[in-house]
Amino acid sequence: MNVRDSEVICGLLKKAGYTVCADEKAADVIIFNTCSVRQHAEDRVWSQIGSFKKPGTVLVENRPLIGIVGCMAKNYAEKIFERSPDVDFVVGPQDIDKIPGILSKLVQKKGQSPFGDSPFFQRKIWEVDGSIRPDDIYHNSFYQDKEHAYLVISEGCSNFCSYCIVPYVRGPLRHRECKNILKEAGDAVAGGLTKITLLGQNVNAYKDGNINFTSLLQRLDEIDGLEQLSFFTSHPKDANLDFFKAIRDSQKLVKSLHLPLQSGSDRILKMMNRGYLAKEYLVLIDSYRKIVKGGLLTSDIIVGFPSETVDDFKQTCGLVEKAEFNTAYIFKYSPRPHTEAAKMADDVERQEKEKRHSKILELQRGISNKKNAKQK
Fold first, then answer.
1. Which contiguous run of DSSP H or E holds residue 211?
2. Residues 312, 313, 317, CA angle at the centre, nearest 5°?
3. I need a surface site. Which of 228, 294, 350, 356 has the fewest CB within 10 A?
4. Which domains, from first to last, does the chain contain?
5. Torsions phi, psi of 270, nearest 5?
6. Is a pLDDT exceeding 70 seen at residue 13?
7. pTM for this entry
8. Burial degree of 129 (CB within 10 A; 0-12, 13-18, 19+)
């Protein structure tokens, strides 16, 4: 999601007359597009901001303007200025369309263009209360890749998994209109891009009137010139046989499914508010593999969730062995503000989290190597 948001921001700024700078040390404006899903991601941003404290370019106080946008902006809002006085503006995920106007206010030369030689600092600005992005921000031709386009089909999330901050920083699930998605896809292909990846916190929950995710895939499949279609990421509670058949029948869809598990323990899954049992997940992926012959399957797993016992962890390892994922992304639990899990005692010691993380990584590495050897 953040990759596409960054492209959208670049497209908006290019339209306003700015130029993307290849060397960040020579830039007049530095924008950090942030993620708050894990503490480690936020810590990296705080650290990187410090690298621009020294004199840089000719703008504000002999340094570049610095902006924090995305999830951290919504999470911390004006408190960011208290933690890092070097930040000049803060913009939430639903307010990125305002960035060109914000820069015009922050960087000005009286009576002349904001790109003059003697701009001056006006004030710090934060915009984090927007609820809906205007759809036209997506309709620009800026893409980092010359063959591949990311395309957002929905924003926000309403699942409220107990460990996840996304609903609190990106708002409730909102679906874009199908006609706008098809237009963006068609324009991207007309511009020479032949591969498209659909994005959403929960892509397979998509709905626009009587058009669901399966029918959206079918419509995109019909675009002349589109050679490859993929999507990320799906939720087990919204996966069904029709969804799997659409993957099978498409001429352009990559035969791959990312279906986050998170835990193999029913007790932990309930505490996570995932909405399914471990056995239901296994039935689901068995159906996928029977319908999509040879289809790849990847997943996400969290270890060290509050109150996770040795037995809970063993159940997760057991399910990983049964599932035989091609790849799984393993994360150590860390509390995120606003979430229900943050109210629980983070009682799995750090050393134990590290131990479980290493063990399941090694387990999955062995499974991945075995599956790769078979495919060769």
1. strand 211-212
2. 120
3. 294
4. 2-127 (3.40.50.12160), 143-254 (3.30.750.210), 259-376 (3.30.750.200)
5. -65, -45
6. yes
7. 0.89
8. exposed
